[in-house]
Amino acid sequence: MAPASIRDAVPDDYDAFARFFAQLHAPEQVPSARVYEELVAPRAFFGVESGLPSAFLCWRPEGAVFHVSILAVLPERRRRGLGRHLMLEAARRGRAHGFTRWQLHVAIDNAAAQPLYEQLGMAVVSENVLLDLDADLAVRLSAIRLGSPHVHVVGRFGEAAPAVGNDGSPVRVVVQGDAAFANELRAAGGAVVHRTLTMCGEMPESP
To answer: With a threshold of 0.90, does the pTM exceed it?
Structure first.
């Protein structure tokens, strides 16, 4: 079978993007059309088969690292090499932008995807726990551990992280590579939303 063609994303692809985002089973709603148009589409592309999008990838720079934000393949098009095809295209684009290292987050129970990323030069560098904290716990965290390099407040996809204050608002945090502290937060009332692995490595050279 011929490899899928690659097509850059455009603003009119929002409905297609929403279908792929749903495949992630992410712990949040689909980003708005504005977020998609302004922040996602400029660094995104589709794998197209028979004229229809079958796979989607978007990325963003994180300092000197090329971060793959989303890689999604429609269920009926999996096990056909589309994920690898899009990742190799991402590596080509990353190298063209001057990146040599890349990373991504993958669900800890996504055993099917992890071997692919290892074959592409990535290795697990941390295990991460995403938690929702109520206002009181959030304020205590702000006072105790928010300065830690292992704990970060996160916002919705494509949006800035909210400030942690005394306004009574709950927050969502990710604890990276510190299972003991994640367990402390859980015991104190934090609700575990998602568990992921961060994988990072050297980008392969373009074939």
So the answer is: no
